[in-house]
Amino acid sequence: MDTWVIVLIVVVAVVLLVVLALALSKRSRVAQVRKREQAREHLQEAQVRGARAEQEQALAEEQAARARRERAEVQERTSLAEQEARERAARAGEEQAAADQLRAKAERVAPDLAADRQVQREPGTVDPDYPDGGATRR
Q1: Is the pLDDT of residue 134 over 80?
Q2: What angle do CA 70, 72, 76 make, to 5 degrees?
Q3: What is the rounded distance in angstroms from the CA atom of residue 60 to the CA atom of residue 58?
Q4: Phi and psi (nearest 5°) for 38?
Q5: Over the Cα atoms of the chain, what is R_g?
Q6: Please, what's the b/e burial string for 101-112 (b: 16 or more CB within 10 A of its CB; e: otherwise)?
Q7: Distance CA 97, CA 120 (A)
């Protein structure tokens, strides 16, 4: 073979290798650009989801705080109602004691009058002065 043919084959082979190397390099850069773009999209999605998660967390904390506040208010109202009931029961006890004292005084002063006023009735019977059973709360 002639020398020029060998040189031509070598030159064509080198050119083909250079073209192949350039094509592979370009393909690698395109793949890298595509991966970077995909990474950016993932970062954006992560940022959006993170913001959404923070917002949901804030709403959940606000809801929990509201529930705790409402529970505290209910407990306070319950405590006040119980205190009022205890005070009312204490006043009722005082009134009952005063009534018992007055009844005892009345018996000492006029035993015959006290015996007439205390009519013993069977449980479940109606006082003739109050045939409807007295007033009821409605």
Answers
A1: no
A2: 115
A3: 5
A4: -65, -40
A5: 50
A6: eeeeeeeeeeee
A7: 20
